[in-house]
Structures are given as C-alpha cells and as structure tokens.
Amino acid sequence: MKFNNNDSVHSEKSEMRMIGDNQTDREAAPAETYLLSSVKESHDTETEDTDTERFEWLIEGEEAGIRIDKFVADSMDEEISRSQVQQWIQNGDVRVNGQTVKANYKLQTKDELVVTIPQAEETSIQPEEIPLTVVYEDSDVIVINKPRGMVVHPAAGHASGTLVNALLAHCHDLSGINGVMRPGIVHRIDKDTSGLLMAAKNDLAHISLSKQLKDHSVVRKYVALVHGRVPHDHGTIDAPIGRDPHNRKQFMVTNRNSKHAVTHFAVVERIGSFTLLELKLETGRTHQIRVHMKYIGHPLVGDPVYSKSKRAGIDGQALHAAVLGFVHPRTGEALQFEAALPDDMNRLLERVRLL
C-alpha cells in the first residue's frame, strides 16, 4: 500500500510501520497492519468504560502556557464552561502536581494535572417517555438499537432527550455504579453513530459487563462507508489515540498523551470511489474508528469532524454498530445481537451505487 515514496507515514516523530503485503499492482492485497510504534501512554484515564469521573494529563511542550481553566474546559468530552471549571478549581477539585492552583495558573511542561469531577445531584435527570428500539431485555441487561442523533447520557447542552432519560422511564431501575448522570451506562457510542448499545439494570450486571469490556472480550462490530477504495481486503490499525493539541475537542493518532488503540477491518464492498467496511474494535477509545480511518486516508463519509467532504446526505458519519456480543452476567450464556443498517445508510448506499 503506497502512502508516499518510502511506504511509511510519519506522525509525532514516530514511524507507522506497515507489516504485511505491499502488493500495489493489484486492486486488493490480502491484508495490512498499520502500527504506530514507540507509544507513550497517557495519564488521561477517561475511557468509554471507566467507572470514575477522574481525568489526568501530563502536560507536554505544546500545551505549556495555556491557562488551566481554558485547558480543562477545552479538554473535556462534553461541553463544559470555563465558569464551571473555575468553580471546580475554587472547590479544590483541580490540582497540579498535587497542589491546588488559581484559575489563571498557566500550565508548565511536565505538570501533572488531575481533575476530579463532583457527582451531579440526583434530581438532574428525569425519566422521559422516549420511544426505544429494544433488541433484548431481561432483569439484568437491556440492549438498545440507538438511532442516529440520540445522545447517550446527559451533559452540558443535552440535559434531556438522551438515552439515559429514556432508559429511566422504560426500566425504572438501573445500576448506579457509573454515577447519577450515567445510570446503567457501561459503554457509549457517539451521538451521530447508530446501532447496538447495552446497559446494566443492576450492579452485578454492571460489574460483569465492565470487566468484559476491559478484558476486550465484548464483540463489537461496526459497518462504515468510507471515502476511497481501501486496497487491502482486511487489516489491522494499531495506533495510539490522544487529543489534538490544536483542537482539544478532536482526537488524533499521536504518541503524546495517548492510549493504545486497535481496530480491525475487512472490506465488504468497493463502490466506485467508496468502500463499505466491517470494523471490529479491540479497544474502545473515543472516536476510535473515525480517527483511525482518517489516519489511513479513508475518512468516514459524512463525518462532520474528521472528513473534509461535508455533503453526504446523511446526518453525521456513516457508521453503524451492527453486532454486539457478550457473556450474560448472571447465566454465563454467550449472547450476540445484530442490527440491520438503518434506512439513512441504506439510502446513502443506493445513491453511491448510482454515481
């Protein structure tokens, strides 16, 4: 696979080694592995399956000189105001090298920044009668086929209309391990990604499902339409993901303050200048598939953040969580569920085939 004359891509002073078949004279070589080596793991402990609201960063050179309140507000997954961060600082919830600081403190290289977010009040979330597509449900677990556009849990700017609001109305009782803002939630998918998501109704289920996520034993397969003709029939992207220092709402492949991330892919169909892929997550980082596909030069169609082409006829990235498998936390039975492509993705594929 040719990216440039040296058959390699350089990022953050490290080399992505491409292991496998370099046959460029055929349309599809059998497999490829994309590996970014010399990984420096991040101290940012927030992942999709974490049980805490604790965030940690080791400040690098490019981040030095930024006011701490601005850095924290820009670095959170959800929309957090600087005034909210300043309140956390005043309360002692934000520390640098173990010490409290003022809101105007400017970060320095090698600072160890820790933010512990206070739990929200229980009255913050109200049950809402929102229609749900329930794929499976028993006294321990519920599996939902989430529509594109639905936020998983409440956050600033999304106080209602979320999956959690709907689950509270449907289930009444959910596991409280993940805090009052995320009851029952053991993993997430992006707002504009559709597909399967599981939630825990009690603490026994939450503990079991969280452990399976951390052990990478949960089966998570996605279907995506990407730009370009992916040359290899299948392959693996092994490249760490961290925040983009120039836009901390976005993520990128980088060695700095990053986390190990692995995505496996297989070509389902090549359609003109597009490719339909099946992707399997080995890890579950924020925006992982979207970032990895952009990194290898095949961003998702319709991705409002990581694709330059915005006109796709679909509200968000063409990404669907199609398969979800796990071991039932009480019975030990292996369960696996599938969700067909939503109508908007099917219509998109029909249009692409006519181009």
Question: What do these coordinates show?
Answer:
The protein is α+β, with helices and mostly antiparallel strands and 355 residues long. The chain has a domain at 54-116: Structural Genomics Hypothetical 15.5 Kd Protein In mrcA-pckA Intergenic Region, Chain A, CATH 3.10.290.10. Helices cover 16% and strands 31% of the residues. The protein is built from 6 helices and 19 strands. The chain has helices at 68-75, 82-90, 163-171, 203-214, 288-295, 343-354; strands at residues 9-11, 14-20, 29-36, 54-58, 94-96, 99-100, 112-116, 134-137, 141-146, 194-200, 219-227, 232-238, 241-244, 247-253, 258-259, 262-271, 274-281, 319-327, 334-338. The strands form 3 sheets. Strands 1, 2, 3, 8, 9, 10, 11, 12, 16, 17, 18 and 19 form a 12-stranded mixed sheet that branches. A 4-stranded antiparallel sheet has the order 4-7-5-6. Strand 8 (134-137) and strand 9 form a beta hairpin. Helix 1 (68-75) packs across helix 2 (82-90). The chain is globular, with a radius of gyration of 21 Å. Residues 1-26 and 37-52 have low confidence and may be disordered.
Summarize the structure.
The chain is built from six helices and 19 strands. The protein has about 350 residues and is an alpha+beta fold. It has a domain of about 60 residues: Roll (Structural Genomics Hypothetical 15.5 Kd Protein In mrcA-pckA Intergenic Region, Chain A).
